[in-house]
Design brief:
The protein has 447 residues and is of the alpha/beta class. The chain has helices at residues 15-18, 31-36, 55-69, 80-83, 91-106, 122-126, 135-150, 163-171, 186-206, 228-251, 257-262, 271-277, 325-338, 366-384, 427-437; strands at 8-12, 73-77, 110-116, 156-161, 211-217, 221-223, 283-287, 292-296, 305-307, 343-347, 389-395, 414-416, 423-425. The protein contains 15 helices and 13 strands. Bound molecules: beta-D-fucopyranose (FCB). Residues 14, 17, 161-162, 165, 217, 287, 347, 395, 402-403, 411 line the site of beta-D-fucopyranose.
């Protein structure tokens, strides 16, 4: 019972989702800041991302909160446009993250940095963003700058968060910047993200970073029936979402379904690129929220598959099926397909409806508590069956800016009142705090 000794219990956030003050201290606009500015596609998102949780000014309070709740790690991301506006190093931007890392260490909390969690300097998006073959090189430079400043105090690094989402939402559905809708762009975007990852790993190592990894989102794809068309549709969806990044990074090649899926839009990639992409990793970060039941659908706009909702399972406010078994399946599948490797669940959590104002008796969020309990037990199950899982980090510390959906979806274990910015831990925060402090023993109440 309980979890392996030294198991890391933490909470996750990302820069643009919580910081606010996007132009403070010499920072340049990012793609997301521009998305939310008047005239941008997300200008209707109120209150705008420009304030978010005001973490940029309230970070000391937030570090104290993480410490009070007893978490051992905190995963956050660095804003590229703060640290390198116009391609120049901005000391004030680096100082912000150095101060944050030092305060965490002083509070006994291990900092974990994600270098790129979707917010890109707007100027680099204007040069083509992830379609620009020069962007991976610039990412390598940026990674080197941040790691040189912080590798002496930050033990864990990740290059990218969920490259699949950047590609899919940015270039296929168009719901994230740069808001393109052209499937022919996808292979080039992926490949540039993968090259950026490879250069980022090299840069972090050269700057002395000890543990370097990548964070991907995985969603098991289950066929809607055992008809051959549905089995093939689930395999295509799995190649597109789950293996498109991991196969090149861990096996040095793309999944065989992809050239067929993209047809004439699939380019020839130089063989040497795969050497760069396949850098040895110290760990893999896994974000898990749900699974996808998939059926063959010739009318689908891309890929000839579509999702089928489960008839009875609970769904979150994001309309995502609650399916904890999928987390066990994911962790075991990673081991089976890619071999032994330290795994960290870097994000897991749920949006359920909470009141805008915290009631006097506190925020009761039993559905979220149950989501965490069942998913953490699913991690335990995977460990029992041989997966080398070293940590679990909840998404998210705070209610925050849920990208194109604004502030309406609340994922926090701490409630944020968007008028006063007051933070109030929810029942789920107390629950996770008990789990963290007891290293999982509290999940098994004495009989
Ligand atoms: C993940 C993102 C994270 C947050 C959660 C709900 O895909 O990494 O920023 O939006 O989903």
């Amino acid at each position: 019972m309980g979890f392996p000794k030294g198991f890391l219990w933490g909470v996750s956030t990302s820069a643009y989702q919580i910081e606010g003050s996007p132009l403070a201290d010499g920072a340049d606009p990012s793609n997301w800041q521009r998305f939310c500015a008047p005239g941008g596609a997300g200008a209707h998102l109120a209150p705008r991302g420009d304030r978010a949780c005001d973490h940029y000014r309230r970070w000391r309070e937030d570090v104290a909160l993480i410490r009070e709740l007893g978490f051992g790690s905190y995963r956050f991301s660095v804003s590229w446009s703060r640290v390198m506006p116009g391609g120049r190093v901005n000391a004030a931007g680096l100082d912000f993250y150095r101060g944050l890392a030092d305060a965490l260490l002083e509070a006994g909390i291990q900092p974990q940095i994600t270098l790129h969690h979707w917010d890109l300097p707007a100027e680099l998006e204007d040069r083509g963003g992830w379609l620009d073959p020069d962007l991976p090189g610039r990412f390598g430079d940026y990674a080197h700058v941040v790691a040189s400043a912080l590798a002496d105090r930050v033990p864990m690094w990740a290059t990218l968060n969920e490259p699949w989402v950047m590609m899919h939402e940015g270039h296929l559905t168009g719901s994230h910047p740069p808001c393109h809708r052209d499937f022919r762009e996808l292979p080039r975007v992926s490949h540039n993200l993968l090259r950026a990852h490879g250069l980022g790993v090299q840069a972090c190592r050269a700057a002395g970073a000890r543990s370097v990894g990548l964070v991907v989102n995985i969603e098991p794809k289950h066929p809607a029936s055992d008809r051959p068309e549905d089995l093939a549709a689930a395999a295509r969806a799995d190649a597109y979402m789950n293996r498109q990044y991991l196969d090149p990074v861990l096996l040095g090649r793309y999944p065989e379904e992809l050239p067929e899926l993209f047809g004439a839009a699939w380019p020839e990639f130089p063989e040497d690129d795969f050497k760069l992409i396949r850098q040895p990793l110290d760990y893999l970060g896994v974000n898990y929220y749900s699974r996808g039941i998939t059926r063959h659908d010739p009318a689908a706009p891309f890929g000839r598959w579509s999702g089928v909702p489960h008839p009875t399972h609970l769904r979150t406010e994001m309309d995502w099926e609650v399916y904890p078994e999928g987390l066990t399946e994911t962790l075991l599948w990673l081991r089976e397909r890619y071999g032994e490797m330290p795994l960290y669940v870097n994000e897991n959590g749920a949006a359920f409806r909470d009141p805008d104002k915290a009631p006097p008796g506190g925020v009761q969020d039993p559905l979220r508590v149950d989501y965490f309990r069942t998913h953490i037990l699913a991690v335990r199950d995977a460990i029992d069956r041989g997966a080398d899982v070293r940590g679990y980090s909840a998404w998210s510390l705070l209610d925050n800016f849920e990208w194109a959906l604004g502030f309406e979806k609340r994922f926090g274990i701490v409630h944020v009142d968007y008028d006063t910015l007051e933070r109030t831990p929810k029942a789920s925060a107390r629950f996770l705090s008990g789990v963290a402090r007891s290293n999982g023993q509290s999940l098994y109440p004495p009989r």
